[in-house]
């Protein structure tokens, strides 16, 4: 059994907007990076079970980049989504209505190459960036 890591953020916004900003490629490219020295120049989302998620993540100086890809297992509009990465690891994202806020909870399977804390910190940084983006727009 892989190690599961949980991160979360309470976002000062209603759930429909949070969902839209999390799943729409035009928004994903504005927040999907852990550090200001990185960016997400491209994203594509086919938001249905069996649909593909794609995001290109790159260092702004061009020194490194990678494609993040997944296939959606389940999509419950405004509530949750789950997907599998090519290596078989699973991710589940919940959008909980805490009116007037929304809590986003992400549970993901850790990979075996990097320490669990490093993975948790990286994913949490991206989620924090998402929170800031939603609350600022």
Automatic annotation (TrEMBL):
<dbReference type="InterPro" id="IPR013538">
    <property type="entry name" value="ASHA1/2-like_C"/>
</dbReference>
<dbReference type="Pfam" id="PF08327">
    <property type="entry name" value="AHSA1"/>
</dbReference>
<protein>
    <submittedName>
        <fullName>Activator of HSP90 ATPase</fullName>
    </submittedName>
</protein>
<feature type="domain" description="Activator of Hsp90 ATPase homologue 1/2-like C-terminal">
    <location>
        <begin position="15"/>
        <end position="135"/>
    </location>
</feature>
<dbReference type="InterPro" id="IPR023393">
    <property type="entry name" value="START-like_dom_sf"/>
</dbReference>
<comment type="similarity">
    <text>Belongs to the AHA1 family.</text>
</comment>
